[in-house]
Amino acid sequence: MRTDRAPFIPCPDGSAPPLSQGVRSGPLLFTCGQGPLDPAGGDRRSITRCTCYLADRGHFAEFNRVYREFFADCAPLPARTTVVAQLVREGVLVEVDAMAVVT
Predict the structure, then answer these.
(1) Rounded to 5 degrees, what angle do the CA atoms 82, 97, 50 make?
(2) Do strands 94-101 and 79-84 pair parallel, antiparallel, or not at all (unpaired)?
(3) Are 48 and 79 in contact (CB under 8 A)?
(4) Bridge partners for 3 per DSSP
(5) Strand pairing partners for 101?
(6) What is the CA radius of gyration of the chain?
(7) pLDDT over threshold 70, residue 35
(8) Domains detected in the chain
(9) Residues near 12 by Cβ (< 8 Å), separated by ≥ 6?
């Protein structure tokens, strides 16, 4: 699945990354990891699960604050796993992938 409305972030060598922006399987949409970008489109209330990657454990409390604010109008909150990891893209402190139910 691909859309020209999503931001394109090349690999460090300038090539296109070997991945799909998202994969749809029936009513389920699985996104690839997204960094701190805000493209138009989508509805956060359709998100059912997030996997969150932080570059620094020290950012966990602030991440929780922003995450809670982002999903403030969503009940229940998406299921979530958060891990601390060395992220691939230079300067990116947070990356999130998600699963959503779309109709």
Answers:
(1) 50
(2) unpaired
(3) yes
(4) none
(5) 28
(6) 14
(7) no
(8) 34-101 (3.30.1330.40)
(9) 89, 90
Give every strand in the sheet of 47-54, ordered side by side.
22-25, 28-31, 94-101, 47-54, 79-84
pTM metric for this prediction: 0.77
- The contacts of residue 32 (CB under 8 Å, 6+ apart) are 19, 20, 21, 22, 97
Structure tokens at 5: 């409305």
Return the higher-pLDDT residue of 6 and 82: 82
Q: Tell me the C-alpha distance between 68 and 85, whole Å.
A: 21
Could you tell me which of 54, 44, 56 has the C-alpha nearest to residue 81? 54
| Stronger pLDDT, 94 or 30, i.e. the higher one | 94
Both structure tokens of 18 = 């070997």
Is the alpha carbon torsion for 31, 32, 34, 38 positive or negative?
negative
Longest Cα–Cα distance of the chain, Å, equals: 41
Q: Are 94 and 85 in contact (CB under 8 A)?
A: no
